[in-house]
Write a structure and sequence with these properties.
The complex is a heterodimer. By secondary structure, chain A is mainly alpha-helical. Chain A has 14 helices and no strands. In chain A, helix 8 (about 115-125) packs parallel to helix 10 (about 145-160). Chain B is α/β, with parallel strands linked by helices. Chain B has helices at about 10-20, 30, 55-60, 75-90, 105, 125-130, 150-160, 170-175, 175-185, 215-220, 255-260, 260-270, 335-345, 355-375, 390-395, and strands at about 45-50, 65-75, 95-100, 115, 135-140, 165, 190-195, 280-285, 290-295, 300-305, 315, 375-380. In chain B, the strands form two sheets. Chain B has a six-stranded parallel beta sheet, sandwiched between helices. A six-stranded mixed beta sheet of chain B has the order 11-7-10-9-8-12, with helices on one face. Chain B is globular. Chain B starts with 8 loop residues before the first helix and ends in a 13-residue tail after the last helix. Chains A and B meet through helix 4, helix 6, helix 8, helix 10 and helix 12 of A and helix 7 of B.
Chain lengths: ~240, ~400
């Protein structure tokens, strides 16, 4: 049954009944406590990415590798990252594979792609461990492409480490929405510092946001942060 | 991308200044008359996603004299046109501005609050960006599509001190009697409650159809995986078993989240765990099928699809006293919409504050993951992780299609 379903992927395309893939769905779950069987399933799925599958079939394989993929699948997924048709679903899998090799593949691709694909890569790196992603994201905060800069700033805000806060200090976005993203990211880092008891460092992030030229809701956010930094209870 | 207009309060003032020589008539509507507050006291609103439920939400806000509805966004031209016509007819003018791209709405300086009723896969991005731009938000339920989105939405609301309300009116209006019974102490200490709701959403593999000129298909898909247009894929009808986006996993959690928002919302309200999330989801496999038990820190259980048990059946222990507590209700007037507008004015937390909505839908998401993995799961709500469960943690979120990031 499983072999038939894997074979069915070779002709799978939009409009085909998804029920033909049910044995794959069942195997992905049933192999939870059987590492050998799961590795076998992963190998077979990853191998299919080398075939002339439809976009739909490749997407499906990526969905399953998101669930069961390991470092062993990275070599099959990585080449898909630079292709606009497959980049997202390759990230769909790689982003969730805990192996550091998956993060490395995303960082390698980051250097090879531009525009929207680069933005996508940044969005996925934001969800990888901070020590994997920080050095790749930092140089992008002032990228010529405002969308890339905004994505990198947002990603650093999600990492919210002291090092991310330092990287954000270098960001000088010109685009208004990127500026707001930078404010949001700095506030996130400040909150993280505050939670760690680093009040002085947090206040240093809040204070510039009190400037009169900042939007009202930003000044409000900074005020609340400063109050919290000084030990006052903020609802 | 691009809307037809970009109107800002500053832009208006600039224009008004240039036209200073023209006669200017202040209408009685602008000044307020009878029950209608003057324009300066009205909440300026816009809508995002105006088909189906969004249309209903628009109508509710439009009918309020303390709301001035000025703009809307939808990826369907026909929906935009119809929604604008409703607004313009209501105000007897042609002023409502329409946009294909929601970002044109949330960046308008003159808009105080937006209501969001897009498919669920868009909610988090829109709510967070709206908060970042200083807007209050009424977001339709289910508020999230993944577990990771919830804390980020709460953070954005709290960080910028925004009023963000979820959208299940049924939590209070359908279950008030049950809630009163539980909160009055009549049942003693609550032991368990059962929720029957479903099904889970499914992978959509509908065939490609020609994309109508009416819809911006790429924008409809947004952060979801690319797929060819199919009318059923993006239909906003309320089915959860096929033929609507509510049925498909890339856009919705199916009945488990769509109706779950109501039923789990009512259940968590009744047993007073709205501010918590479960610590364990127990997967109970029986011959007639599996069901779930969500265990809360205080020992109370929410069952899902407990065999031979009615929806929202509740069991307490009358031998154990429970102190009666006053039941929270809407603030202001006009149901859940009035509650939101009241809170926009007063800066109070709304009845369906985003945190409560997120906690409710977390139950649906946790249950979905347990059903999909066919096993019990521990949940650390503070860390928002399945402790020591690398496989389950993969389902906390999903990669978004470029250029959308969260």
């Amino acid at each position: 049954m499983l072999d038939q379903a894997l074979e069915a992927l070779k002709t799978y395309d939009w409009g085909v009944d998804v029920a033909v893939l049910t044995p794959i769905e069942e195997a992905a779950v049933a192999t939870h406590a059987d590492p050998s069987a799961r590795a076998d399933l992963e190998t077979k799925l990853a191998a299919l990415l080398d075939d002339e599958l439809s976009r739909d079939a490749k997407d499906y394989v990526c969905r399953k590798l998101m669930a069961i993929g390991t470092a062993a699948s990275v070599a099959a997924l990585a080449p898909l990252l630079a292709n606009p048709e497959s980049s997202h679903m390759a990230r769909y899998a790689l982003e969730r594979i805990p192996a550091p090799e998956a993060g490395q593949a995303l960082r390698d691709a980051l250097a090879q792609v531009d525009g929207e694909l680069k933005v996508g890569m940044i969005g996925s790196l934001a969800k990888r461990p901070a020590d994997e992603s920080l050095s790749a994201l930092t140089p992008l905060v002032n990228d010529d492409d405002p969308a890339v800069a905004k994505a990198a700033i947002t990603a650093l805000g999600r990492l919210r480490t002291p090092e991310a806060a330092q990287a954000l200090a270098q960001a000088k976005p010109a685009d208004e929405q990127a500026q707001l993203a930078a404010i949001d990211a700095r506030l996130a880092c400040a909150e993280s510092l505050l939670a760690a008891g680093k009040k002085t460092e947090a206040m240093a992030l809040y204070k510039p946001l009190m400037a009169a030229d900042q939007p009202k809701h930003v000044r409000l956010a900074a005020t609340r942060g400063l109050l919290a930094s000084s030990g006052k209870k903020v609802d | 991308m691009g809307g037809q207009y970009r109107s800002t309060r500053r832009g208006f003032l600039k224009t008004a200044g240039a036209a200073v020589a023209a006669p200017y008539v202040i209408t009685s509507t602008a000044l307020g008359q009878g029950a209608i507050p003057p324009a300066s006291d009205r909440i300026v609103m816009a809508g995002i996603g105006i088909g189906n439920q969004g249309r209903s939400d628009q109508g509710a806000f439009l009918d309020r004299p303390d709301v001035q509805y000025v703009a809307l966004s939808d990826v369907r031209q026909s929906v935009r046109d119809a929604a604008k016509a409703r607004v313009d007819e209501h105000y007897q003018n042609q002023d409502c501005q329409t946009y294909n791209d929601y970002r044109e709405v949330i960046t308008r300086d003159d808009v105080d609050a937006v209501h969001v009723a897009t498919p669920d896969h868009w909610h988090a991005i829109m709510v967070i960006e709206a908060c970042r731009n200083g807007k209050d938000v009424y977001c339709q339920k289910p508020e999230t599509r993944t577990l990771r989105e919830g804390p980020l939405m709460i953070e954005a609301a709290r960080r910028f001190a925004r009023v963000v309300s979820g959208g299940s009116q049924r939590v209070l209006e359908d279950y008030r009697e049950l809630v009163n019974k539980c909160w009055s102490g009549e049942l003693g200490r609550i032991k368990w409650i059962n929720v029957n709701v479903g099904p889970l959403s499914q992978l959509c593999n509908l065939p490609a159809e020609e994309t109508p000129a009416d819809i911006d298909w790429d924008m409809w898909l947004g952060p979801a995986p690319w797929a060819p247009y199919n009318a059923q894929r993006c239909s906003g009808n309320f089915a959860t078993t096929g033929g609507s986006w509510r049925s498909y996993v890339d856009y919705s959690g199916g009945g488990m989240t769509d109706w779950g928002a109501h039923h789990f919302g009512g259940a968590t309200f009744a047993i007073d765990v709205r501010e918590q999330q479960p610590v364990e989801v127990e997967y109970i496999a029986e011959a007639q099928g599996a069901y779930l038990a969500f265990h809360y820190p205080n020992g109370v259980i929410i069952y899902h699809n407990k065999p031979q048990t009615e929806n929202l059946a509740v069991e307490g222990d009358p031998g154990e006293q429970r102190e009666a507590k006053p039941v929270p209700v809407y603030k202001g007037e006009g149901g859940i919409y009035g509650d939101f507008i009241h809170c926009v004015k007063t800066r109070e937390r709304p009845f369906r504050d985003i945190e409560l909505g997120v906690n409710t839908i977390a139950v649906s998401h946790l249950g979905t993951i347990a059903y999909n993995l066919k096993r019990s799961l521990k949940w650390d709500a503070a860390a928002q992780k399945f402790p020591g469960d690398e496989e389950a943690n993969r389902y906390l979120d999903r990669a978004r299609r470029e250029p959308w990031v969260l």
